[in-house]
Fold this protein.
Amino acid sequence: MSDGGERAERPFALVATRVRVEERMLFDAFRRRGAACEHVDDRSIVYRVGGPPPPWRAVLNRALSAIRRLEVSRWCAATDTPVLNSAVTLACCDNKIATSLALHRAGVPTPDTVVALDAAGGGRAVAEVGYPAVVKSVNGSWGRALARVGDPDAAEAVFALRAEMPSPVQKLGYTQKFLPGRDLRVLVVGGRAVAAVVREADHWVRNTARGARATAHPLGPELARLAERSAAAVGGGVLGVDLLEDAAGDLRVLEVNGAVEFHGLADAHPDLPVADLIVDHLLDATAGAAS
Amino acid sequence: MTVCPECRGAVSVPDDVMAAEIVVCGECSSELEVVAVTPTVLALAPEVEEDWGE
Ligand SMILES: Nc1ncnc2c1ncn2[C@@H]1O[C@H](COP(=O)(O)OP(=O)(O)OP(=O)(O)O)[C@@H](O)[C@H]1O
Ligand SMILES: [Mg+2]
Ligand SMILES: [Zn+2]
């Protein structure tokens, strides 16, 4: 296989299904550093096992499909191509069960969570966490397919529908105690928490993908430390840690996003060069891998 | 101006548009994916799939 010297001549790749605000910001940051970076649509990748390695110096993996982005990072790992995020991190973040288990193992506080391996056990899982409960898709994102369940009838209805869904993933039951409180997101880049936002909406689901407003939130040492521990627990990289803060200020981590969207956070922190921090982290990781 | 594949209306696309960006047709509100640049070619953007997201 090719050596590091040859690899240093190659461009970086930003693998992305869509060029959104974030990807544009990242391309600009590569340009500011004089680092050539090409856009690669993950849907266009075809490669031979044992064939030439990816023709890129390093990869920033922002594919939208969780299945495809894992494959992108897996290919990179197998060919010693530096990639953010790693396949290990993505496998953990793109499955809410894996995330919860990893966070718990690292001693990170999370809402009470009960898992059922089939929709038939969903009612039992909800009864165990108590009402109101939240039922989520194990592979859900952007606030999709989230239900707040107030009583056993509602739980039965949610899991009756899930049992009929063709996708086996949707038959899994991921249930959690519903907790009132503020919704926070912390961006972690390479082990360091860099900024936080609070997300507000009229609905209890406060994803910016569903129209929630993000405003700057102070990144105190406790919040920063918890976000950094959460990021480390899932394998590290460029990560968005979602947390709930109750009235007493106690924090619980909801999930860690492995393909983090940061336009809301960047708008809320206009002086923070978010994309530059991410690109610098990739350049550092690449320099480390080459030496 | 580029033609909307859904309604044949005229869609205005920024000069520096990149492949894989999404533009919205002002006439029919379809979400359109830029599948090629110079010249710009638009296609109906695929639906969000089950495993898409952060
Ligand atoms: N246990 C809970 N108690 C109260 N609110 C919750 C709870 N779980 C989720 N929420 C609300 O729903 C939102 C989405 O939840 P979560 O982050 O788990 O799902 P997601 O769809 O995977 O989001 P993302 O786009 O970040 O991947 C949270 O940001 C929060 O506002
Ligand atoms: Mg979330
Ligand atoms: Zn149209």
